[in-house]
Design goal:
With 333 residues, the chain is an alpha+beta fold. The protein is built from eleven helices and 19 strands. Helix 4 crosses helix 11 and helix 5 crosses helix 6.
Length: 333
């Protein structure tokens, strides 16, 4: 019997939900290839460990950037490998719901659907990530009340105002947690003359990164390569320095939320004073981001407990409940 699957094809992580089982796979959206033969050597966690540590003939890359497919062939092979891990074969091809950023173009949407079909899906439905996140967070999206969702992903930040099962207001910027990592890398290079890798920047963000001052702040020891001498060097970074480094990126996220609020009808804007907004996505877990948004908008901000998984959980609910599937749309051949 064919199985129904929901896939959150994120820039940072790819999550798969199987009907009746829940989340069955959560891997980084990274694939390692032989640059000469294009043979796939590893994917997911194994490939992520290779970032910045591979010889010249091996490339560890992310096939999605800023929420869009940058390499169609590699993305298709990644989805095919995922389905193979889940023992999807010729005789049990699944129906698949794929979560996509609202900001991508119609051409990019069809590219995602075609990649899923060629990887083994029999039917493909697409659902916008903010809508899936709202469902996953348990919000009453079909009621005549304001549901404001801010989804901060790896490559995009999407803010959607949802009411009566539809999107009333929306704004998106192609800025996310990867841009925060890049800003940290640039700051350390500029201020200290040290080159640090993508993984190190992410570790700094998790350890001491914040968008608003928090209690019990600690410093972090960072090791990198001195650009002048080429030798390893260690420096000490403070949370205040990281806030300064990522301020432009955080401001872009805040401005996007304010823009969405500015397009809200008066009655729904009134609802938000009592309802507040809901923060989801891996980037939404940046320390102090909820406080920064609350200060800028004067609206309560609730960080969803399953922030990283809310999108795929919402898509999973669509395959569990046929009535919920009406918020997605089928993409034919």
């Amino acid at each position: 019997m064919a199985r129904d699957l929901a896939i959150d094809l994120g820039t940072a992580n790819i999550l798969v939900y199987e009907r009746g089982k829940g989340i069955v796979l959560n891997e980084p959206t990274v694939i390692a290839l032989n640059s000469r033969t294009r043979e796939v050597l590893a994917m997911g966690h194994d490939a992520w460990q290779m970032i910045g540590r591979t010889p010249s003939d091996i490339v560890a890359e992310r096939p999605l950037r800023q929420g869009a497919i940058t390499d169609f062939d590699v993305t298709e092979r990644m989805i095919r490998l995922l389905l193979h891990r889940l023992r999807v074969g010729r005789f049990n091809r699944p129906r698949v719901v794929v979560c996509v950023p609202s900001a991508i173009t119609e051409v990019e949407r069809r590219a995602v659907a075609e990649a899923a079909r060629r990887a083994g899906a029999t039917e493909v439905y697409l659902i916008d990530q903010p809508m899936a996140a709202a469902i996953g967070a348990g919000l009453p999206i079909h009621e005549p009340v304001a549901n404001l969702v801010v989804d901060v992903g790896g490559g995009t930040t999407e803010t959607a105002l949802i009411s009566l099962g539809g999107v009333v207001g929306f704004d998106a910027v192609r800025v996310g947690s990867f841009d925060i990592d890049a800003a940290i890398q640039a700051y350390v290079r500029r201020e200290y003359g040290i080159a640090v890798g993508e993984r190190t920047a992410e570790e700094i963000k998790v350890a001491i990164g914040s968008a608003w001052p928090v209690r019990d702040e600690l410093k972090a020891e960072v090791r990198g390569r001195d650009l002048a001498t080429g030798l390893p060097k260690t420096v000490i970074l403070t949370p205040a320095e990281i806030r300064e480094a990522i301020d432009d990126v955080v401001n872009a996220i805040v401005e996007s939320v304010i823009t969405c609020l500015g397009s809200a009808p008066p009655e729904l804007a009134h609802d938000l004073i009592g309802q507040g907004m809901y923060l989801v996505g891996g980037g939404g877990m940046l320390a102090g981001l909820d406080q920064r948004l609350a200060h800028a908008t004067e609206i309560d901000v609730h960080l969803v407990g399953n922030a990283l998984e809310s999108v795929v959980l919402g898509a999973g609910r669509c395959i569990e409940d046929p009535a919920a599937l009406r918020v997605a749309f089928h993409v034919g051949r």
